[in-house]
Amino acid sequence: MTETNLSGKSQQAPSVLDALIPVSFLVILLFISVRLFGEDSSYGPNQIVLLLAACVAMLVGFKNGQGWAAMERDIFTGMTIIFGPSFILLAVGIMIATWIAGGVVPAMIYYGLKLMNPSVFYSAVCLTCAIVSLSIGSSWTTAASVGVAMIGTAAALGLSPAICAGAIISGAYFGDKMSPLSDTTNLAPAVAGVDLFSHIRHMAWTGVPALLFALTLFTIIGFASEPAADMNNLDSTLAVLTDHFTIDWYMLLPLAALFVLAWQKMPALPAILIAAFLGAIYAVVFQDFGRDAERGQIGAIWSILFGGYEAGTGDVVLDDLLSGGGAANMLNTIWLIMCAVFFGGAMEHTGLLVKLLEEIMQRAKSSAAIITSTILTCIGTNIIAGDQYIAIVLPGRMYKVAFRHHKMAPVNLSRAIEDSATVTSPLIPWNTCGAFMAATLGVPTFVYLPFCFFNLTMPVISIVYGILNFRILPLVESEDDPTMMSATT
Questions:
Q1: CA 27, 31, 37, 42: dihedral to nearest 10 degrees?
Q2: What is the distance between the alpha carbons of residues 341 and 62, in angstroms, rounded to a whole number?
Q3: Is 10 helix (H, G, I), strand (E, B) or coil?
Q4: How many beta carbons lie within 10 A of that of residue 31, not counting itself?
Q5: Is 476 helix (H, G, I), strand (E, B) or coil?
Q6: DSSP category for residue 144
Q7: How many CB atoms lie within 10 A of CB 69?
Q8: What are phi and psi of 103, to 5 degrees?
């Protein structure tokens, strides 16, 4: 099959082999990258791999008759989706720096050390993040605020930052996918054509068991683990924090302000910047930050906004925990996101991604196969496109007809999308969510991945439900409009 492009050249539809060439190239080079560079592979090597794979995809498109300039134009136009996440990342870097300097993060670590029992720490972290994320509808905001403090608390207790990061992400993504305030929770039913609260109720059948399973595992791990830190020296750690920072209840007010702004549905970027500004004020008013600095207080605050905060408590562990943030420290993550979205755009605009999805759809003949294919397609799109929104919208649109054909209500589609596209996005290093979590929590994606029990369990539960035909609601034609579909309750 051929068609003619604007330049008059014959344009050929891509084949399955065409679509597999750049994907195979990507997988092979990523494997080599991880073997050669290990945890450092996301600090440059993976970016180069993604760029090279995007060029391979464009060469395939060029071979099929697509003009190079037209492909570049379409891909770069589609890359506007990274602007929002990139500026949020910069804002988070700024907020982390000012919250450390202002005593907000040290206060959260202080109270966490006093209140948290190491045996139930991981499960408590997971549950706390689930409640916070459910309340504000944002996994990113939860990780950037409560999550950063929990990572610091875990390290101070001698517990595993990787397991802690898994607990944070598990809880944060449960709350994110179940909250009516979440953008993805609104996007998935909109794509599938279903009511928001019907979608949330249907998701509870997979989300709640997955969370309970994750909490059980975190509890078992907690009781089986021995803190590496000497609990008898905990008082000295607390003393170092109080010696170098003003610690009191009002240090948590910027955190409360951020939650209120998120609850009021203020967009993430201005909410995080306001919270960062409050942290800067706290640094000057309560911490005497920068009074003796070479450039004065303004210069000192200005420096941490772009360069991050560097602690000088004299305690090696605390200095490592309380040093970081700054906009500049997020630039590598933004570079990774740019390269991932560039590759995803190249696959999409050359028709290679759609060709892969169509091939998968043609092989799914039963209802269970359709649900399984939807979940695997969303995960695959997360890997290839590097963005959860593409992984929600593109498969959602393509599988809509298939679900209707197999007489399944659209809530089954919206749930399958969320059970895969949303929750697996932080498990992929070059995905916008995976890059964000790794940069914010300071734990590489492949290191925390085995402990994201909720995120790993969700797709499995959803597939099992499809195979067993459990809670798969049938299609009911609306009496008012035969083209609209609703689910039985």
A1: 30
A2: 19
A3: strand
A4: 11
A5: strand
A6: I
A7: 9
A8: 90, 0
The Cβ of residue 307 has, within 10 Å, a number of other Cβ atoms equal to 15
Domain ranges (residues) in the chain: 83-330
Q: Count Cα atoms within 13 angstroms, Cβ side, for 137.
A: 19
State the Cα–Cα distance between residues 214 and 459, nearest whole angstrom.
14
Residue 426 contacts residue 442 (beta carbons within 8 Å): no
Dihedral of CA atoms 113, 114, 115, 120 in degrees, nearest 10, equals 50
How many residues are there in the chain?
Answer: 489
105 neighbors 282 (Cβ within 8 angstroms)? no
3-state helix, strand, coil in the chain (%, to 5): 75, 5, 20
Q: Is 321 helix (H, G, I), strand (E, B) or coil?
A: helix
**What distance lies between CA 466 and its chain's CA centroid?**
26
* Burial category of 264 from C-beta neighbours within 10 Å (exposed 0-12, middle 13-18, buried 19 and up): exposed
pLDDT in tens, the chain (489 residues): 444 454 445 778 888 899 889 989 988 888 888 788 876 777 888 889 889 999 999 999 998 888 888 888 888 887 887 788 788 888 888 988 898 888 888 888 888 877 778 888 999 999 999 998 988 888 988 998 889 889 988 888 888 999 999 999 999 999 989 988 788 888 888 888 888 888 999 999 999 999 999 999 999 999 887 765 555 567 777 888 888 888 888 998 998 898 888 788 788 788 889 999 999 999 888 887 655 556 667 778 888 898 888 887 777 777 877 888 888 888 888 888 888 888 888 888 888 888 887 777 777 778 888 899 899 989 988 888 778 888 888 888 778 878 888 889 999 999 999 999 999 999 998 888 998 999 889 899 999 999 999 999 999 999 999 999 888 888 875 433 433 333 333
From first CA to last CA, the distance across the chain in angstroms is: 45
DSSP state of 267: -
Report how far residue 173's alpha carbon sits from residue 140's, in angstroms, rounded to the nearest whole number.
9
CB 251 within 8 A of CB 104: yes
